Amino acid sequence: MRNVKPLLAFGLILACCANLAAADQLHPFKTGSLSEIVATREGKPFLLNVWSLDCSACRAEMNMLAKLRKEYPNFNLVLVATDDVARSAEVQAFLLERGLAQVESWIFAEPNPQRLRYEIDSGWYGELPRSYFYDPKHERLGVSGTLKAKQIRAWMQATGH
User: Fold this and answer.
1) Checking phi first, is residue 129 left (phi over 0); if not, alpha (psi -120 to 50) or beta?
2) CA distances (Å), 108 to each of 5, 42, 53, 82, in order?
3) Ordered mean pLDDT values, 10 residues apiece, the chain (161 residues)
4) Burial group, residue 22, by CB count within 10 angstroms (0-12, 13-18, 19+)
5) Which domains does the chain have, with CATH numbers?
6) Is the preceding omega at residue 129 within 30 degrees of 0, hence cis?
7) Could you count the other beta carbons within 10 Å of the beta carbon of residue 130?
8) Stated pTM of the model
9) CA 89, CA 102: separation in Å to the nearest integer?
């Protein structure tokens, strides 16, 4: 029986590693992905943040989002990088450095980024950062520019987050 404990411990370690690997993966954002994101959060408020590695304002905003995630572990945040899927490794490294690797993250994965931007919001022309506050009924408010932590806290309080 003594040999069972190390095997159980090893099994638990493998299971944990598998969960971390799955969480650290970027999902390919394609036509239909926004519907998938919304559907998996039925009845729940969430913040959809659209960003890019090449956007300096986005980088600063990501630092603020990382701090809020530490402060509020149940903060329902979804990240969508508008960078090409070929930059997945860079995006993952960036998220890991900021402590955001566990946040559900997507990356543009179609050759026509305009189509994906249009799918997210037909009135959005690509300015970054861009965020969408979804309430529990999934009515949303789009905001261009860098968010402030107090905006997010107020939204979280209003939506019972």
Assistant:
1) beta
2) 44, 23, 12, 5
3) 45 38 76 98 97 97 97 96 98 97 97 96 96 97 97 95 82
4) exposed
5) 26-158 (3.40.30.10)
6) yes
7) 24
8) 0.85
9) 15
